[in-house]
């Protein structure tokens, strides 16, 4: 499943080959998209929310016009199930993972522009940096590879997960990569130094989704244990645990207004206002209407950062 960037529309793929679009506010189905001949395993929106890409066990990638609610292209060539799809921020390039191969597609011309090989296990997750220059790919063996999109060359390889990589996300500056694994851990990687920064433990089952807040200071993880956990990236500590789903939490995302959405296999979408957790100093400023004195800081923020003015 995937949300549009504004969080208003949810796309879900199902085992019968259908794709459904939902209005998040009213919880109503908007439309059903038919075309795939087998299970839909991955969905992704362009940043403007106008185009949807879907990957399927029928070995095709399909593009859909969200406004007109119709299929606009079929991208063929994969020899195995398509497990993951992702757009660049500008929507010009699409990556799709199938078997041990990742293909890059030029969206406008509907043509393949590159084929990336090297994974020993099936590719299970793909994601781009915000600038579209780097692609991260993860496989069912736990390996993560970074690729230079322009040259189509592998530039780094991360090993650490003991089982498959299920989800990945970059910070907006592209310097940090988060990965969620079936080994119940989330890991943070320094993209520049090509090394692991931290291992986040806590989930009782496999992690299915990871997402950064806009400032990159907070990471959300959703898992098969039905929980969503927020982590402070700097200290690598769990901030809070959010519950609600009765089954797997398949997808988590942050919205610009500070709301976090999570979709689960129980058919529900939960939302939480986590702005006071993601941006606590801004929250304190809004509540107090002024900066704290050093004494108040010591009293109300005893385990927080060093004293500072919280209001501009």
From TrEMBL:
InterPro entries, alphabetized: WD40/YVTN_repeat-like_dom_sf, WD40_PAC1, WD40_repeat_CS, WD40_repeat_dom_sf, WD40_rpt
Residue stretches of each WD repeat: 1-32, 33-74, 75-115, 116-157, 158-199, 200-241, 242-275
SUPFAM superfamilies membership: WD40 repeat-like
Alphabetical list of CDD domains matching this protein: WD40 (cd00200)
Kinase listed as a keyword: no
PROSITE patterns referenced in this protein's UniProt entry, alphabetically: WD_REPEATS_1, WD_REPEATS_2, WD_REPEATS_REGION
Matches recorded under Pfam families: WD40
UniProt entry keywords in alphabetical sequence: Repeat, WD repeat
Gene3D superfamilies from the UniProt entry: YVTN repeat-like/Quinoprotein amine dehydrogenase
Name of this chain's protein: Anaphase-promoting complex subunit 4 WD40 domain-containing protein
Native organism: Sphaerisporangium melleum
């Amino acid at each position: 499943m995937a949300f549009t960037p504004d969080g208003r529309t949810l796309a879900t793929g199902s085992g019968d080959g259908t794709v459904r679009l939902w209005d998040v506010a009213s919880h109503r189905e908007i439309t059903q998209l038919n075309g795939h001949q087998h299970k839909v395993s991955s969905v992704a929106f362009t940043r403007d929310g106008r185009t949807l890409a879907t990957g399927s066990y029928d070995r095709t990638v399909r593009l859909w016009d969200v406004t007109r609610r119709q299929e606009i292209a079929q991208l063929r060539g994969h020899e195995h199930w398509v497990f993951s799809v992702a757009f660049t921020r500008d929507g010009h390039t699409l990556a799709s993972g199938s078997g041990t191969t990742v293909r890059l597609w030029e969206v406008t011309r509907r043509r393949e522009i590159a084929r990336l090989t090297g994974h020993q296990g099936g590719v299970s997750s793909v994601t781009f940096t915000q600038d579209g220059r780097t692609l991260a790919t993860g496989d069912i063996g736990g390996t993560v590879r970074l690729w230079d999109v322009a040259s189509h060359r592998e530039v780094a390889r991360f090993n650490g997960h003991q089982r498959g990589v299920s989800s990945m996300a970059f910070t907006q500056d592209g310097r940090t990569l988060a990965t969620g694994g079936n080994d119940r851990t989330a890991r943070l990687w320094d993209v520049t130094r090509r090394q692991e920064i931290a291992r986040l433990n806590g989930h009782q089952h496999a992690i299915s989704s990871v997402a950064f807040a806009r400032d990159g200071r907070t990471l959300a993880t959703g898992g098969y244990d039905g929980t969503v956990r927020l982590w402070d990236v700097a200290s690598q500590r769990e901030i809070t645990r959010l519950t609600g789903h009765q089954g797997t939490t398949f997808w988590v995302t942050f919205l610009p207004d500070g709301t976090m959405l999570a979709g689960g296999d129980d058919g529900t979408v939960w939302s939480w206002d986590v702005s006071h957790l993601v941006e606590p100093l801004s929250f304190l400023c809004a509540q107090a209407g002024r900066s704290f004195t050093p004494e108040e800081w010591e009293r109300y923020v005893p385990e927080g950062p060093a004293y500072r003015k919280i209001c501009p």
